[in-house]
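OP here, attaching both records as promised.
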Amino acid sequence: MDNLRLKIHQLVEDVKVRSFLRAFKLFLQRIWTNIWYGESPGWVLLVLGLGISIVMAFPIIYVVINSLFAGADRWLRLLDDRVPGLLWNTLSLTFVVTFMAVTIGVILAWLVQRCDLPGRKMWRWILALPLVIPPYVGAVAYISIFGPAGWFRDVLGQSPFDIYSFWGVVFVLTMFTYPYVFLITSSSLKKMNRNFEDAARSLGMNTAEIFWKVNLPFLRPAIGAGAILIALYVLSDFGAIAMLRYNTFTAAIYYQIGGFDNVSATVLSVMLIGLTVAILWLESKGKKKRKYYQSANSHKKPDILPLGKFKWPALILTSLIFIMSVVLPIAVLLYWARLGIAEGALDYRFWGFALNSLKVSSIAALVSMILSVPIIYLKSRYPSIITTVIDKLSYSGYALPGVIVALGLIFVFSQHIPWLYNTYMAVAIAYIIRFMPQAMQSGESSLSLVSPKMDESARSLGLPSWQVLFKVIIPQILPGILAGGALVFVSSLKELPATLALRPPGFDTLSVRVWIEATEAIYHMAAPAALIIIAVSLIPLRWMLSKY
């Protein structure tokens, strides 16, 4: 009898446990469904996307974690000795370059898009050409002109302008970053509705008042987007700043790595990461306060405004900026390249450098195209907090300087994956982490044109999510994926600080040779590599011009 009672009790307990487990399972399923706002992706696709995003963010996370173990003494010493000066140098340079580049970009966009500037159609694309000239290449050209042993010294006895100064760095960075604002602002000006200006004129406003009270508010989002791109670029730049002997966080981090003081480099990196995050946060807060809308139902193209007596001064200003940012640097490089080629610069070593660049950039482009597809598919077709986190982690390397990505990879490879340390694959992996978001952006724009109904039809035939992606979606968005790969290839070709920090001994690329030869003032050997980089960089410019 006792045994029967015990069995009944155990049976009841088992039923209760099973009921609890079943209820708990249903509860978890309901939470999981709510997270995905309905249908969830397959586990294969989700695990793949999550794994890729963690790998993309791991070097940055590793740098932050290692900085926490640097010790209070090292933190205090750097905060007392180095950080105040680096902070002032970095912030002042970022602010001044951003302000000047925004001013130039907005003025040029207004003259080209809204005024009867002679040759408007030609200026629309040639004013964007400075984007194909890496600032460190531009620095080489201007050192040749204004340096202590430059052309002006040969002609005048002394240079009228000290290129190795704060304002020299400002000048070089401004000349090669203003197109960010020029392109984005030009795009907004094309879409502006004339009805608002007509309404303002009916209230008695003149052209200047309309610009400040009507046009400028509509342009603020575009100006802000261009400004944030410029600010982030200045924060991350190493080549031009180092060539012009100016010290910012990026240069200091690189020199700490070169001095094998990686712990101090992590501390400085965390400071720079904090600056980057702060700028992004301020930009997001400002964006929420400047939303402006216009109706497309009664859209009218804006009028072309006559410049009148200001036509020729405007043309001279536009031509002067173009000459300083494109004509002069290219002319200097062509002069040195002619001398270099005559002295045998295009020897087997040069083509070896070109082959190295081609190899690592091609690997980065190919892998980026492959890895970007699951991320953008998850974000587009399965929106949730999980895919948002995956997307943000994947972008983390793009928002930070290449030197910090390199520092994270040095820690990871030297301590955990030694067979990758000091190999060209380490360089390729750094390129992937830095530039895969460019492939994601291009692929995402193509995916947005593919109807989700195609996915639903494929799934109704029994295909899991990952097969839908590879059999249905990828063939549809392949042109966008290839365009993104081209962007990654060109960006990798120009990348300097990550390449310098991670390259194995004897493995030089075109960007590295430009750096080495220019720092030793052997400009005729640096110029051919610089011109090849510029020529290849024309590839993404065509894509950007069609976009904007």
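Record two, same layout:
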Amino acid sequence: MDNLNYGIIGNCRSSALISDKGSLDWCCLPQFDSPSAFAKLLDDKKGGSFEFIVDDTYAISQEYEDRTNILITTFNNGVDAFEVHDFMPRYHKKGQEYHNPPEIVRYLKHKFGRPSFRVRYNPKLEYAYGETTSFTKKNFIVSLTDSEKYDTIFLYTSFDQEKVLNGDELFLGLDGYFLISYNEKLLAPTLQKTYLELERTKVYWLDWSERTPSYKKFDKQILRSALTLKMLTYQKTGAVLAAATTSLPETIGEVRNWDYRFCWIRDASMVIKVMSELGHKNSAKRYLQFIIDLMPKKDEKLQIMYGINKEKKLTEITLEHLDGYHGSKPVRVGNAAYQQTQNDIYGILMDVIYEQLAKFGSDIENSEELWGITKGIVWIVAKHWQEPDKGIWEFREEDRHFTFSKILCWVAIDRAIKVAKIFKKTRKLNEWKELEEQIRLDIHENAWNEDVQAFTQSYGSYYLDASVLLMESYGFIDAKDPKFMSTVHAIDKDLNNNGLLYRYKNEDDFGLPSSSFTICTFWFINALFKIGEHDKAEEMFEQVLSYSNHLGLFSEDIHFETKRLLGNFPQAYSHLALIECAINFSRKQSEEKILESIS
């Protein structure tokens, strides 16, 4: 079973996916949302890949170098062995903040014997539209296409270029390298320079990991998730991507296939909240600047999502020539959801602004802009909170009064009041407090269903929804409140399918899902933990961790029956929720040890 057994490498400019057999099957250059140069992931035959072909005597294994984003694939037949160290360069450089060129380095380390392999180097530029042709030049192999658009990519290597391109047998006696660059290099790479890139990148990631706190429990999983989230941040603007891919289906053969290489305000804000909790202040500061730069005029609504370079228009098109992941069409680029109205984003954003001010004080840069944004958000929420919207799950049918959206409208006002107190701006506090109370009462009156004994998906609905579990996390209700406990138990009964959660069970635009939305399971585990069912929560958590791929990575969805990973990959949402759960369990263990030592 293909279980998205890929590792991700990246440098906060772009990323690439390498299979557990060492095949480079997905990469967009020069940045995350550029057209793909390798897309075997989305079409086995036409997509393009860069593979190492070895005979059947070789066993292939894969792991990350500890505490880094350098991926090591080992080829070993007992007599001959070599490793491929895959990475995208990233490190501090004099005179500029970071060195993170649009490049992939595949550094081959000779281990023992005289290993042999062939290379299948087959880039397909511009989403594999038209032909890509490769030529050997004096210092490099150039691949180009000009059938739809003109584009080029360059391969530098220590091996014989003709043999590489022809797929002839190659032997490794000493270390060697391949360097894929979007740009022609002014200075030709050498083995020594390439090794230095590897070591500098390793030191960067080790330093970054060192600044991430250690935890008593699930430390390895927390760090791998944090490293993954870091790779999904875009250095240039501070944007955070939902995932590194497009059109990996929620269900094989169906049409729930979306492009996630964009910055959703909701997803990104949740990621940044977790990253700042882990002490990574710079990511939070860059993201806040991204938001400040995006904020529309004071009477204009914020979009739910933007391009990573702050693009507002994300036109959705279909790539008809690609067969899709395991034949799952359509392959989409762009995302029409950018036009939707989702009233929850204001609360999510206000929560992040408040968290940063509470952590770093009112001397944080851009305080005046943040206060301006706060007032603007209150104005927008006051004007629009009573209107229906598309909700967190982006239903493409009619708008409804979604409970989660209403809760986050309440959060927006609650956090705005707290921000006003930090800034000592008390003039509008009474007015804002009245609005906060009005929204709170409205939710209790309309979202609670006496028959179901739970807060339901939307006003007047009988359907349950996992997003409602977040009402406790956001401080709307106490974990021990009978209504919240009853909601958790109702969701357990209705949406829990052998330890994996449905988002909801009412049929949406595409019918009942056959896979679980990973973040919902983590939300449910957190909710169980909060209401005191610690053992059940931890047992479920351990079970879900076992469904990750061989490197501890998660996609968006897990198939209920086969436990296969589905949906875009790796998914920021899944990893941020994993971190939140793991930190709760780790803190509980620390508190128990403190109590033991006291007693």
